[in-house]
Amino acid sequence: MPYQSPISPGRSWYEDTAGPRPEYPALDGDRRCDVVIVGGGFTGLSAAAHLAKAGSNVVLIEAHRFGDGASGRNGGQLGTGQRAWAEELEAEYGFSRAKALFDLAEEAKAHLLEFAAANKIEIDYMPGQMSVAHKQRYVGDYKAHAEIMANRFGYPHITFMDAKETAERLGSARYFGGTRDTGTGHIHPLKLVIGTAKVAVQAGAQLFEQTPATGIASVSGKVRVTTPKGTISAEKCLIGVNAHGGTLEPISAAHIMPIGSFIGATAPLGADTNVLPGGEAVDDSRFVVRYFRKSTDGRLLFGGREIYAVNDPKDIHVHIRRQIAELYPALKDVEITHGWGGYVGITMPRKPFVREVIPNVISVGGYSGHGVMLSNFFGKLYAETVAGNRDRLRLIEDLKIPAFPGGRRFRAPLLFLALNWYALRDRI
């Protein structure tokens, strides 16, 4: 039987096309190290690779298998900048801080591609991304955004598209305009997970799967992470579990909420299709965002159904096909070969959460759907922090991230109501 993740529904197209997926042993016995990392997604694996290359003794534990969470199952889009547009950050933090945050994200993009190339990780990079308006009244914002990015933030790769160009580039007339970004692209995320784990091991990191953390404590300047079959003692700890923290650490849990996002993969559309002829990825202006792209073998990978509670849907294929048909009526009967989901971590303002939650324990997550490039880079920034330079990570630490209202008991129902209200607004 093919492997089925116990924390994410469905089997992904990524799993069937990633090539060999090595298995790593479970921890059995105690360990001492410089840094212990909890979580084997992009953040943790990247941190392990960079720390080990810098000479640190690193132990990383993952409760399931690497890539079982959002890191191995996401839409694969890199994006540009932070989750919020640069001009929105400027309005909140001022130009110099907004520019620093944008430049950090641009460095994250370059780092991901350079890391993959330097370590010979084939991530199936395809260039181009379009952001499109599903309501006419949003079109002016997209046009202004392209001008602001070029003239104020020094990023000339975004151009405005009117309705006609948008329809031609999408192969769908359901959107009113948008932007095209030639300075970014999309990847096969599970191949990057697998490759980063190999780099970490080759650098000397000790990696363990099927090893959940059962507790984290800071005692007399040391960090202790307990597991079912051993305790890890370290100088420092990184928590990189994002949406899968549960009750492990209460501060992160109060600030990062899991939401389910689901993707379907069609059969190959063929060379004569008019769907995304330029091969770009797409995201739209809905609060419950739809995101889609073509794979290297010509399938449409379409994500769009979000669930604001951790209940696995049984009908991913049906809902994804319905959304595809709204944009591409000719595909109303298309075969959906794969349907899968994963849980991403969001914060109230949709900005990343980085905080020292216990002495010598830093938690990183809440990428809010913008984590492919940011999470990998934040692993590098954490390694810089361990080496004594916390300045760049502090750019993110200092962001204003309030806790979700309602406490542990009521925050999920309140968020469910609020975000379903936003989903209703998307349709009006």
From TrEMBL:
Protein name (record): FAD-binding oxidoreductase
Organism encoding this protein: Mesorhizobium onobrychidis
UniProt entry tagged with the keyword Repressor: no
This protein's UniProt keywords: Oxidoreductase
Residue ranges occupied by any FAD dependent oxidoreductase domain in the UniProt entry: 34-384
Pfam name, any one: DAO
Annotated InterPro entries: FAD-dep_OxRdtase, FAD/NAD-bd_sf
Residue ranges of the region described as Disordered: 1-25
